[in-house]
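Milestone M4 deliverable, item 7.
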Amino acid sequence: MAAGRILTWILASILVAAACPAFSATPDDVRCAAVKPGEKIEFRGRTLIETPDIAEPQLRLANALISDQCFDQAVQLIDQFVQANPDNDHVFFVKARLKWILFSQAQGRLVVDRALQLRPDFSSMKILLASMYLEEQNFPEASKLLDEVEKVHPEDLWLFMDRLRIEAGVAGSPATLETLTAVMADPHFPPSARGQAMKTAKYMDGITQEQRDRFFTSSMDAGVASDCDLAAQATDLIEFRHDPAAGVSLIEKYLHAGSKCHATPLVLAILAEGYLLEAAKIAPGPVAANAKLVREAKEAAGGNLNPVAQRVAGRPFLVAPLLPFLKGSTDVSEPDENGHSLICSAVISQNAAMVAAQLDAGADPNGRCGHESLVGTLLLTASWDKVAERQSILRSLLERGARVELLHSCADPTLGGDCRTTFYPILKEFDDRRAKTRESL
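Output delivered:
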């Protein structure tokens, strides 16, 4: 199968750069133009290099572009290379990486298997397959492939990285963590390797929370961690370690570090949540003593507290401390990024207190939640737990005028979940009440 034909279907499914005004250059264009092929890395007495069996400069650059998430540029370069070298089978490697990163491991695996059928000694492809095995925690199969590659290319960078991953997964130690920290902090390693070092350490057993926290700080200072990593660490501090002051301090540190790159809506919502939990320690609602913290929360959340309220909707354990601060500071109709209003999110999360609060604030009991009504969303969610909460939500909606829906379907014992036992008696009660009211009129 010629390389030109094997690349056709990937090029058809990847969006190349969208049309833009002539001569304009985005920050990503400038960044990607500076990417260079991977070079030799000197690390603790050994020389490492990525894909040592792939010598073609264009493919080495394409691989580096993929690691830097310059996908449009990588695809264009690969296309040019294939036009000039239609039978070069090394192109399988960059194609497999693109498929894995942009679509799924399963799609990338199809390319890997085909390539190794055609060329069983393709070392870089064996390493890529070993990495896939490691994602599945299949250490024996990964180790077997790594042993084969080590005989011919002991300098392979990802041979080294995958050995570290196995070490961390099987018998991680403080020394393993120290090595991962050194890799992550070394700018000579490609972004993909530094990111993998961070991911490996994050889930490593046998290290203390203090060591994890130090590693996180190192990853932030090295510029490897993303806004999502910052959000996860702050959430851990605020919600699971019950230390909102530490979570707030962490976010503020990196927002004030000369760059606003971490000031994403999620991070700012978590920051606002932290401020309000600190305010709740002072008083169980807005008072003069916590007014500064409440003001800072609103500023962080963009003027109203809807971003925090959306988090509360999905986290019932936040209702008690934060609900008093949300009253009068949310928009009942403002949707989140998924198009869900606050009451919709609360129904989905089976958060009875939040549903009641939103109805008190003026939310429409007959509002929509995606393609369903609020009542329909509740009734059509197959579940066997939170019975009291779900019954409370249904009563709250019906008491505020929501339509009685699915009465006859809910009586059917074959319907999924516990609709017949949990909801039908309440639906029948309100249907009978309304029938009597209609008769009296």
